[in-house]
User: Fold these one by one.
Assistant:
Number 1:
Amino acid sequence: MELCARTVVEVRVARSPADIAAHHAVREAVFVAEQGIFEGDDRDAWDEGAVKVVASISGRVVGAVRLYPLDEAGLWKGDRLAVLPDARTVGVGAPLVRFAVATAGEAGGTRMIALIQKPNVAFFRRLGWSRQGEPGEFRGATHQPMAIALAGAQPAPGPWGPERPRSGRAFRSARTGAAPRDSEDGWRWTTIAGERRPPMASQKATKDLIEQLHERGLRKKVAKTVAEAIGSGSHKTAPPAIVEVADDLKDLADEIEDRATGRSAKRRAAGRKAAATRARKAEARSAAARKGARRRASGATSR
């Protein structure tokens, strides 16, 4: 997808059959075809009552996410966040996440949880999410439980919208219509895009790290946090603020290393292999169960 001077990203609840079909098509393209986390189809029982959301550019749906309430009062879950590869440099993910958070909040939710793939943890933290417990494996990929409070969740105020201005690229948002769940228009986000930069894989890892630190504003954040912690006196354990910026740096370092070594591609391949293995074992169990049922039925008939 070619970046324009201004790229309008529209986010809305999928109500029409076309939007719902496009929502599932994006999920299948990412979670089945690209990442291999699911085999054949990623749909499950939660889809029946879920709020399905799409993001579109120039009428083409390029992103999706779903959300639904859980049994605990006020608790919502968001998952199946997916953006097509050719739209990932345009800034589609943040509007989708913020739209889902605000929609759940306007529906009476007080807290939202999600399982986040490890490379995306830093991105979610910049959107206000926090880690909940230790990471674990889900369908062959490492996921971090995360959560966010829903009270008053709205797009970021001020002249800059969903994300801070980044090198060569700035973001501005404008909400149109009524509440997301009641408006046919949903939210409209205008992305002012600069020149597309070369893929990270083609650059040296050290240069990537410096550029990413600059883009994410981590250099100033780290310097300020460390200075404040040192100025407040000695500590037996690291202050929470120090731990937070250290986690940000670890997430970024892991992401850079994954891209430089191709480890993310290896994980996707391993995920596809694991999914295929699970499918074979499930089929074997099903075949054994059918065989056992036939054998019992035959024995009952002979008696």
Number 2:
Amino acid sequence: MKHITENQLDIIVFDVEHGDCVFIQTSSGETMLIDCGHKQDFSPAKFIKEQKWVGESGIEKAVITHHDSDHISDLKNVRKILTPTQYHTNNITGDFISKKDNPPQESPKQEYVKIKNYPSVSQYLYNDIVVKHFKNSFKTSIENEVDINYHSVITFVKFGQFVICFPGDINNEGITEILENDHAENFLEYIRKTDIFIAPHHGRIIEEERNKDTPLSYLLSVMNPDIIIVSDKAIEEQNQNTVATNYYEGYVESGLVFGRNTEFEKNRKVLTTRNDNSIHIKVEPSNTTLSNPYYVQLNAFNSEIENHIKLVQKERNEKIKNLLVNRKYGTTRN
């Protein structure tokens, strides 16, 4: 296994367009995935294996915040290639998903049902790293419908004084429930310490909600993060009214400076994968004396990802060419 950065905690927020996929490698080599979305011609699971960032035994843990397709579309590759030892999922039961949705065999949702049998615990310790989960109990409406986003797992990763929060697609109803349960104070303790926040639901908020006091706005005001990251695709006509970058900027006091001492120097409060591509967060050892213990790199691994995509496209084109030759001549070219 190859370390991404020696003696640091590495967190990579992959650009998977309108989806989520984050890879984490600890300073001692433990590895974890949070959600497993993908985009055309780019499977994070295949890329991680290609880069040799995991050993032969695979990754230690995969966290699936909820089973929307943009969070599990690469799950089959994750199970086959990265072979997680542990999974952590929400409290919606596999039986309910099977009966309610009857997902087709080999579909991402059917892959998700398969991992529901793995036990989940609320906290993991990897040497000096803490991984803490909060989630709501399973409930349905009178009509036996389920709000998937309400059930999103919220995950915190803490390394020394550094804390990053991954909330999945948690909505205001889900946040309210967490704030009212027995673990609320512990949850708020993590919120107050959060340095980097991954915006829920890909940073989308309808306009009517942006000027209201909501559970999300309460969390953001308590948190005061250094930076907020949005994992989302390019702005299009049909989604432009829900993009809430300016809303999130209002909850970041200082932000981070990029391109320092160059003509491109700029203070940023919100980063987005649609503009910044994959984002690499490097966290210094927990005993560091630095005032800012982490560094954020934009456009991370661009050349490696581009080469990976070109190879995938080349292999696909070869398969198509062989298929056409076989149909025409009844033989397959090697």
